[in-house]
Amino acid sequence: MAISSPTGVWWRQPLERTELVWIVIALVWCLIMFFMMPYWHIYGEQNLANEAYRSKPEDFARKTEEMIAKYKVREEGGDLAIPVVRPPAGSDVYLIAQLWRWYPILELEAGKSYRIHLMSMDWLHGFSLQPENINIQVHPGYDHVLTVTPTKPGTFSIVCNEYCGVNHHTMVSRLYVK
Ligand code: CUA
After folding, report:
1. Which of 9, 10, 34, 175 has the highest Cβ tally under 10 A?
2. Nearest alpha carbon to residue 151 among 173, 172, 129
């Protein structure tokens, strides 16, 4: 059966009561959500104070290598020999995302702050820290800085959560907090 046209001038007809109730509920909910954004930005505990700067992948790779040369404590991953870096508290820490790995592995201290810099060397990747709920897009050419203070020790997983090609699913790493 086809939908029949409304009779008369439909927008002049009175609102049905339930429709009015739902419009009011939806409006109130919209307003709650709207004011939650600034509220959560100020009082939420998981807002990343983030900054981003345009920068060249080569420069970023050089800074990463300099950091590794200074603060490498061991290697992991068997033949892959991925350096594990323990940078001093308060320092700038670099993490490279590239097809299909995170480089290097970071070891941080609980209760200390770090400026973590993220950049992709090729195309879009996603930084997802598990089991914490932190998700950041990692772009080539942008140095994305997060000021973080790990609150509890443990071994966290870093997972790429932007599809980046055939080995996307292998793009995983760790983050140690001592
Ligand atoms: Cu990198 Cu998916």
Report:
1. 175
2. 129
